[in-house]
Amino acid sequence: MDPLSDVFSLLKVKSVLSARFEAADPWGLRFPAYRHVKFAGVIKGTRWVWIEGVTAPAKMEEGDFCLLTDGLPYCFASDPSVELQDGEKVFVSNMGVDGIIRFGRGEVRTISVGGLFEFDGDMSGLLLNFLPPLVHVAADSPDARALSAALELIRAETESVRPGAAVMAGSIANIVLVNILRAHLAASPRSTGWLGALSDPRIGSALRMVHEEIARRWKVDELASKVGMSRTAFIDRFKDLVGLPPVEYLIRWRMTIAREALKTGNDNLSSIAAAVGYASETTFSSTFKRMFGQSPSRYRSEARSKV
């Protein structure tokens, strides 16, 4: 798999597509702090979004999406000057039997949807630590075509309660998340951090090679040669973008995969060690303990006891 797919598989992304919101102007809603990531898309009209004390209000047009990543209270409004109400209370008190939230009197000027992504895993920092608190993807941006298609699916799925809605909603939400990240990387090719490294032609290529053959006995010289860089330049560039030297990144990723295998699988230690590139079970165990503070066997035992 490619690096982004690898991380998503370990994060076990839980996606929830929230209710459809239809409103007549004027309106303004404030929502409390949250965990992980939220997104919103505009089906009709316009809306403003901002994070309290962090970002200035940004106008969202029809077809736009946004991603909220820092967990702080945030606001949506027909205009930034409108007095804000408690968003959660408004949603609860105005939700119809069809799951649609209708707010205000008069002509509906705004139709929007949103969702929540929760991550089960310690790798969420790879996605979140270097993202801006508010990612705004305009409908007319070059890399928003897939999001436009997703929005049409969301429009159809939220018009009424339909069989299989929960499965569809989660699948569509995952499509939205991946494509917002893709659009962000395309629009911000110099982004820092692991996500930004994926869009770097050389370091991104090295990351893909490592993830595709995690058990291979990679050498820094070999990776540098494959991407057309000197050893020193490769190490410096890799560390600058990813935040870790190449060997340290490889070790951490191997141990992360091993930890997941210990928690969810039934393979013995030698098989897991071999799968992540260790011929010696002893070396694997000592590396795992150095990184996570306990032996693989103890970690597996404790992880199973919590299930």
Automatic annotation (TrEMBL):
Gene Ontology MF term list: DNA-binding transcription factor activity; sequence-specific DNA binding
Keywords, sorted A to Z: DNA-binding, Transcription, Transcription regulation
SUPFAM superfamilies for this protein: Homeodomain-like
Keyword Transcription regulation: yes
Keyword DNA-binding tagged: yes
Pfam families: Cupin_6 (PF12852), HTH_18 (PF12833)
SMART domains: HTH_ARAC
InterPro entries attached to this UniProt entry: AraC_lig, AraC_XylS_family_regulators, Homeodomain-like_sf, HTH_AraC, HTH_AraC-typ_CS, Tscrpt_reg_AraC-type_HTH
Start and end residues of each HTH araC/xylS-type domain: 204-302
PANTHER family to which the protein is assigned, alphabetical: ARAC FAMILY TRANSCRIPTIONAL REGULATOR, HTH-TYPE TRANSCRIPTIONAL ACTIVATOR RHAS-RELATED
Name of the protein in its database record: AraC family transcriptional regulator
Organism: Paraburkholderia panacisoli
Lineage: Bacteria, Pseudomonadati, Pseudomonadota, Betaproteobacteria, Burkholderiales
